Amino acid sequence: GKLSRKSNEVDDSVKLSFVNGSGKVAQVFWVRGPGDAVLYSTLQPRQTYDVDTYLGHTWTVRDPSGIVLFECQCHGPGVIHIPAPPIGPNPPFPIPGPGFSNQPFQQGPRHADADDSPVRCKICFEGDPQILFQPCGHAGFCWGCAQKFVECPICRARITQHVRMFL
């Protein structure tokens, strides 16, 4: 894929693969800055899109109506599975597999200091759950707890990468 504009803060290029596992069209955007997202690809169902990007860049996947399915910051090469549409009134969520967990994302804006949020770290039950483990895809850990593990506490897979999620 085309190489996104290099950021001043990063020097390393990496490859990301977006796999549309849903039965619907999905759009892949590079987030250049607040309110500034650049459409990179419109994926048909079961289509894959490879893109060369840089560490630290943020990517988001939306449905054609503009609803954000998920957003992640690039911390290394990887495969990102675009979720199947949910059944019922639940919010969109990533499917199990490399890159993302099967836990639902909370809809609406969240802030790291949102003390009234019922969503907390699965380990300490206090921190903001913003870390996802790769390659297993389990998520829901705060940064402090995530740094303590070499193996995923859920499935015991070796952790090769921590991905910061934006919920």
Automatic annotation (TrEMBL):
Residues 121-156 form the RING-type domain. The keyword Zinc applies. It comes from the Eukaryota. Gene3D superfamilies: von Hippel-Lindau disease tumour suppressor, beta domain, Zinc/RING finger domain, C3HC4 (zinc finger). One of its GO terms (molecular function) is zinc ion binding. InterPro entries: RING-FYVE_E3_ubiquitin-ligase, VHL_beta_dom, VHL_beta_dom_sf, VHL_sf, Znf_RING, Znf_RING/FYVE/PHD. Keywords: Metal-binding, Zinc, Zinc-finger. PANTHER family: CASPASE REGULATOR, RING FINGER DOMAIN-CONTAINING (PTHR14879), RING-TYPE DOMAIN-CONTAINING PROTEIN (PTHR14879:SF5). This is RING-type domain-containing protein. The lineage of its organism: Eukaryota, Cryptophyceae, Cryptomonadales, Cryptomonadaceae, Cryptomonas.
